[in-house]
Amino acid sequence: MNDVSVTTRAVPAEKASSWQKILNLAARIYELPAALVMRVDRPYIEVFKASSNPDNSYAEGGTGRTSWPLL
């Protein structure tokens, strides 16, 4: 598998706000405990945005080590 070069880019506040609304809506409509937007920075994965429903146990900024390929 070829390595992929990843560059972290800033996400504008209005885009992050839109993602938050989409995550909250998806969690509500599909009755999900959590809806997430993840950011990959090998070998770590970070919760970039998380739905704000009460059942969500993921905190924004939470990270974990992952093995590749992820899926």
Helix-and-strand structural type: alpha+beta
Poorly predicted ranges? none
Note the total helix count: 1
The largest β sheet comes out as: 3 strands, antiparallel
Tally the beta strands. Answer: 3
Strand content: 15-25%
- Count of domains: 1
Percent range of helical residues: 10-25%
Shape: globular
Q: Quote the average pLDDT.
A: 88
Q: How far apart lie the N and C ends? A: 13 Å
Numbering strands along the chain, what is their spatial order in the largest sheet? 1-2-3
Order of helices and strands: HEEE
Question: What is the CA-based Rg, rounded?
Answer: 14 Å
Structural description of this entry:
This protein has one helix at residues 13-29; strands at residues 36-41, 44-50, 63-65. The protein has one domain (13-65). The radius of gyration is 14 Å and the shape is globular. The chain is α+β, with helices and mostly antiparallel strands and 71 residues long. A 3-stranded antiparallel beta sheet has the order 1-2-3. The longest helix has 17 residues, at 13-29. Helix content is 24%, strand content 23%.
Q: In brief, what are we looking at here?
A:
24% of the residues lie in helices and 23% in strands.
Defining traits:
24% helix, 3 strands, 71 residues, 1 helix, three-stranded antiparallel sheet, alpha+beta
